[in-house]
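Case study.
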Amino acid sequence: MYNPTIEGEGGEFKDEVFYEPVNIEPRFSDPKSTIDPDKTKNWFWRVLPILMSNKWPLLGGLFLMVFTMILGVSIPALMGMLVDSIEPAIINSDPKVFFQLIILIVFLSVIRLIGGTIGSYQIGKASNQLEADLRSVIYNHFFTLSFSFFDKTQTGQLISRANSDIKTIQMFLMIAPMLMTSLLSFVFAAIYMLSVHVFLALSSMIAIPLVFALSVKLRQLTFPLSWLTQARQADVAVIVDENINGQRIIKSFAQELMQVNLLAKAAKKLQWVQVRSVDVSAFYNPLIENLSVLGSVFVWVYGGWLVIEGELALGSLVAFNMYLMMIQMPFRFLGWMLMLEQRAKASAGRIFEILDEKSELLQDKDQVNIKHMKGHISFKNVSFSYADELILKDLSFDIEANETVAIVGQTGSGKSTIIRLLSRFYDCDEGGIEIDGINIQDLSIKNLHHHIAQVLDEPFLFSVSIKDNIAYGKPDATDEEVIQAAKAAEAHEFIQETSDGYYTVVGERGYTLSGGQRQRLGIARALLVNPSILVLDDATSAIDVNIESKIHESLTRLLNKRTTILIAHRLSTINLADRVIVLDEGKIIASGKHEELLNSVSRYSEILSQQAIKNDNESQDNNETDEQQRKRISDLLNQDSDAFKGGFSE
Amino acid sequence: MHLKEVSVSKEANLPFAGIPPELSERTNALIDQEPDFSSLEVSFSHQYEETKPFTLWNFLAPYKFRFIFALILVALTEMLLLVGPYLVQVAIDQAIIPKQFNVLLMVAGVWVGSLCLAVVISGIRIRFLGRLGQLLMYDLRVRVFSHLQRLSVDFFTEEKAGRLLTRMTSDIEALSNLLQTGLVNLIAQLLALAFILILLFSFNVQLTLILLLFASPIMLTFTIWFSRSSEKGYEVVRNKIADVLSDLQESLSGMRLVISFNRMKHNMINHRNIVGDHRNANDYTAKIQSIYRQGTQVITTLTSIVIFIAGFFILRNENPTLDPEGAFTLGTLVAFNILVGRFFIPINELSGLYNEFQSGNAAVIKLKGLLETKPSVVEKENAIELKNLKGEISINNVSFAYDGKTEILKDLTLHIEAGKTVSFVGPTGAGKSTIAKLISRFYDPTKGSITLDGTDLKEISFSSLHSQLGIVPQEPFLFHGTIRENILFSKPEATEEELLTAIKAVGIEDMINRLPEGLDTHCHERGSSLSSGERQLLALARAFLSKPRVLILDEATSNIDQQSESKIEKALDALLEGRTAIIIAHRLATTMRADITAVIDDQKIVEIGSHEELMEMRGLYFRMFETWEKQKEERS
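After joint prediction, the assembly is written out as follows.
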């Protein structure tokens, strides 16, 4: 009876573009590499392939940085020579050496300017490229993951990993080379100083370990303080947020004073922790700053004595002091870099956790592609459990091609699971699902999705124009096609009434649509791809009865051409179906025409009447949870406050 | 009893993830030291006080002597910073070149002494200013928040909520930054610049003029260029990262659609483009920064060279013997060069400080706007404390328009006897809820008056009015806290017995016992979410606890599931007994229990009477009743 057109690997349908419509020009090349899959490696080595896919700017930048660092190190020495050359130049009227040194310093400075600028720019570019590549790699990876992954993770967490964690790695990789080169400059400066005078060099560095130790101590003290500051700021924000939203209740019970006291307490706690931070920085910051000068005092006294004794030239002493300044810097930031490395490591760990996640849906290589799907669906002894709960038990049924079937059942009876298994969002534990006689696990997933379109009760709309939302599954659709689909879903009229018609931007960042309007756009979106199998999962629940009947008219016109599965509880929707399948606790208890079932199956009318109540109950609760509110507020605070970052910098 | 313990406890969800364990231990130790401010009480009055406009100057004026003291400390610190370079010149000219070791020791002694003094003085300065700033911020927080409590309900529209929150958070933070670091740094850097210039002029006028006229304009231009381009650059970066994140967010939220419509490839390319744009924006700021970082160093070095050349010629002309006692010496030249580096620091810093000053000033302007907003409904001075209300309400020829133009109510008159229950019915938008809002005095009528026990509402103090009025709105608002705290909200000082009585009266003891932690269950936590009916019952318990004389139910019984409906009807029996009640209702059952029902349509009362009387009229009420009946049948 069925004779599906089957195309193998080499068929005329191999062209994936057919399944994956693309209507956008890439402006940037794809990431050239991904992370090292070897989980035993250190985080840096795992990121290295991405970093090295862009190796010339990176290595060139590093080379230039080291080169200019060496030039930079030589300048104080030359300045010292310059000071020493003044005396002979004036007394002996021989300014030749003086001016030679001047020209040399100017020349080196210019080279340093050019080299240093290009070098640090190249390193910045390499780290930005790494950031961009990591972003794309993670984004692309999300699409390969199975749905159970998204069930157990929160979107907010994923976004924070894909954002702040990447940023932490990028920061480290941008700053590390700079600090490394400045550490290298310490080595050169130390060599110069030791070569001039060993004892003077060693004794001038006395303060450095102290400065380093104090900086580390300061950071250890600062972190808890800035963390608590941020937490207390969030507390204040939570009180204000609730106060604003609950203003009517507060006024109607005359609780203003209680609220002011509540805020005063939170503000007092914030004040307390901030005063603590002030005290810590009042103690440590002046100490650290002035301690580094102590080395200079020592150099001038001891070095001055050496000059008096004739063991050292005055110019060397000047140069010595410039070096001392140079070598203290890296030590003040060394601790900071070590902390950045720790954070980068932790961030990398969290990112790898996502990238190491593999999809549970296995794809065999020999996938089958069906060109023209007829839409005969058959479930054969399907069992499926989710989170240890058996949802479908040994379920078998057939849906003929071009048939319209309504699935009716209570919440939790497994209706939606059937749809998810059909689209292979999950794989069944036992049994199999066949379409046109082919097991869907043998079909390529893209081919399968190409033929099935779903409309959910709360269709997700993207923050793009209405037209792009309708054309989501077929980005290259013509305006005519989009309008046709919108008309069929009875959406054309209200679309035209919006400010920019089909070009009105909707969704989170745009025009707000009512639930019914969203559902109509969802239906238009599904109709546009002209699927062989159409699934409407409670897709008209929020639509006005009059409009629903109009949509039904166009649907009845369109339904005949395809297999349609309706999940519904409204009688008007169920009436559309040729056949009703009644599902109860994961099993089919009856199947037949609506009227027949009403008369013969008592459980059916029971389910129908309970459905009406259930639906009422489900429309509750869009209140945000404590967790969500905290998240929103801490996001808000992070946006404009640098307090937290302050904990990590000097 | 407090509404909630305002803290992020150690066990609670930390708002910021990813703290290394060794640091979280320290953080916990710090939290343990935190004092408990539970006995803190502040005063609050509904009276709007006319004060001086909120400007930076007026804000700081009461503390001017403390600020002057702080400025003296700042000036001292900046001067101490210059002791070093000055001593270098002394060391070279008076100790090293003339070979005077004891002078050198003296120099060292003075230098170390100045360093110690600097540590102490800048320590005091930071402490003093920091504490002062925090005190100011605390006062400002309480002041702004108290003002928010004074403002009327019409001010708190939904679109304002986010902005009001920023007033209390980031705007105050910006002002705090300006006070504690910005303003002081600005003055400190200007002072440093002045002191350095004085010292430089004392060293040598010609060299200083070279520095002032040639080098500093270059550095200044360069810094301004950097500050402007980086500001622009970061603006672009911020916009682009917002694009990246919203695309990511949408792709994750719409994952099912992306997969089932085979949009993966299209979205990957799209995301790559957005990410690429973000990278380009980052590259631009990286470029600007690289140029600036290297540029400032090179400008400093080249300025030194120019100074050396000029100094060389001055030395040759004025002091060819390099006499250390001369007017211009080698020591002066070296010290001058050390100061050149110092001279550029304030110039570089000033541009950053200017931005901070701007954002602080913007915050002041926004806060000024908020603090100058007057409440639209004001409490009269010496308002009457109305005790032991009977609950007799008179609405006399009341007209009302939210915007002053479109009238919602027109010339409405109604008398409600104490202890009676009145229900208002009518089509949506007819003005039923407005009547409730006027009686609660969330708004004042545009024309006419409302009296309570014969006293005009405008004469009654807010606290005595609201403490005897109980309002249950359509959307029960639950605060983030436990169920106990939410019921106690209306009367925080209530005893446990009163609480239990309220719970029993509305019949929610079973529901509460069912919850994992009973009364101490958090209302908004995952897993313990309450249905809309249960939340409404909590709101009724809350109203019951305050024992109001007048109860207003503003569509409180719509949107309720069938299971809760019967419970609510029972709860209403307890609630309505012995008090005046105004019910704005959708539901037939609720309306039918009223003594009088007023049908509102077209800004006025079109029908009034008991249920039976209204049915006999066969008017609007009759038609509405028929529709209700029909719906009821359909349901069952």
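Observations recorded in class. The first strand of chain A starts at residue 6 and ends at 7. The domain at 198-311+620-650 of chain A is CATH 1.20.1560.10 (ABC transporter transmembrane region fold). We will return to this complex in the next lecture.
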